[in-house]
């Protein structure tokens, strides 16, 4: 037997087929890596109150009572079995004597879907497996593994199958340990066979903990080796050095800045300047709080590249943002942005906007300027790179507000031209350290924590519209007060309205995270819509104010015109979808009312409120919800309102979204290489594995001396399951 042996050769054909089909377990390796989800003990029945209707669960309990009666309205009989342990009781319901040999006093595992009848939780005809002291050795150990299971493959079938492997192999003796022995010794980790034995058949919680630690190492190290290999490969790629050259565009930008750079902006600027001067391409992630001034940092890097004779592209997630960037960069550069034009400065360059909505002629002209190199700075949306636009000499790509600019896109970029450009990815959605080390493990990161001084900050609160309707009236009043004081406001809704069906806003950036599922509940009214709300406000609480709407179904020209009017203070209140989520920069806007705030994700709300934190005046963000503040979602909103520390919120976000969502769909699926590792809890382990991975790859021999590890890495790297690295 080896790890690659098909299960069909060691288990019965029927079992092997069921395992393959319902749990995607095909080989001995798959089965051994199918770890218990938890362990049941006598006297610790899963608290029934904790079970959700619809959950599929397995519980360990003892039969207390069995009563059978005829059904009143239809033929047949109904048997109610009450099971329990020290902690609680639960009803099992069987129709027509399907309860077999359940007798009072018997212990068993019961698996089924939690239902509810007359307000009591129950299992309708669950599967069960009685435990008899003699044939079940595990029973003596009193720590019974509960495996992820399905209707077709129950936990106890998995348990039996593992036992079969164990007995056949005399203690997993055939399993070779991929971890180098001295690494194991250094971190005090048990061997793989020992860990597998302990995780599948523990005698104590200590066994489980020790085994889990070791098995997490397997996951973390393999992942980090893949990432380290990527970093190494990237470092060996030939790039073009773009060192600073005095007296050019960069100096002009610095001279034109209407403010002092913050310390953070300066430090990151130096980091970037040095990296752009090297001839291996930069791959850097810049995380900066909303409003921390990332654009200027990017602009200065772009200017350096232009000074060195290259071109720089700035990619925004939406056309609205791209247009805004092009406008503000052109304004900052003045004549330097119009080289070749009558009033242009010949020492400057050209800034062109290249988006899908340009008219054909303008588009042709822009493309020509990009191709002949006269446009040093090109602003567009992420689509720019996919559309086969030709650059004369692309030196730097800046990707704005896109924390999910995956490995795949980065690879595509590298394939552009014979020398890959430098790449800077910017995001205001803070990424917890563990995520930065895993999903972004192949990027170097910089952080801008500090906001420019003189900012008013944002005060946020939750408005429980159902519990306290008067608060909502007060919210509109506050908005009117701000407008009366000369300021402007946003009202944000989850939906556009009219003929859409509550689906996502179409122009939302593609990295917008959805609110957790619970928020989308089936029988609730549809989310509020921009078009309806604008009308209602116009006739009601905001009558007399100048309102405009902004959403993804408008033409790019109309959006652009509306943004301009808002920026020019011709509009008091912008009623919008999340198109305003990222980057929109109107410092005079100070109030934001988010309706149905529970429909948005944590980082989305943080982004949104960043729109009213951009000027000298204090911003106000009101999160309106009809849900109770005591609900999980209500608490999430309260958390958003109570802190403006993006890193803290990233943690809340990570806690409320299941980790599977972060590491990608593959993780929540059954077949993933990351099963035990937790992004929330295993920060230290991940960091240690990252160091070990770098050390292992530091020599030219790479993994040549560690064939076991090399095999694990190869499996992960070529495995389609590894797509979670890209998708996440
Ligand atoms: P973000 O990091 O969210 O993209 P921006 O780059 O849009 O932030 O900057 C937000 C605002 O702060 C802009 O109006 C910008 O001009 C201004 N800003 C940037 N840096 C500074 C600074 N050092 N001092 C004062 N204002 C600044
Ligand atoms: Mg920005």
UniProtKB/TrEMBL annotation:
PANTHER family: ATP-DEPENDENT DNA HELICASE HOMOLOG RECG, CHLOROPLASTIC (PTHR47964:SF1). Residues 496-526 are annotated as: Disordered. Gene3D superfamilies: Nucleic acid-binding proteins (2.40.50.140), P-loop containing nucleotide triphosphate hydrolases (3.40.50.300). It comes from Geodermatophilus dictyosporus. Residues 499-516 have a biased composition (Acidic residues). This is Probable DNA 3'-5' helicase RecG. Pfam families: DEAD, Helicase_C, RecG_dom3_C, RecG_wedge. It comes from the Bacteria. SUPFAM superfamilies: Nucleic acid-binding proteins, P-loop containing nucleoside triphosphate hydrolases. PROSITE patterns: HELICASE_ATP_BIND_1, HELICASE_CTER.
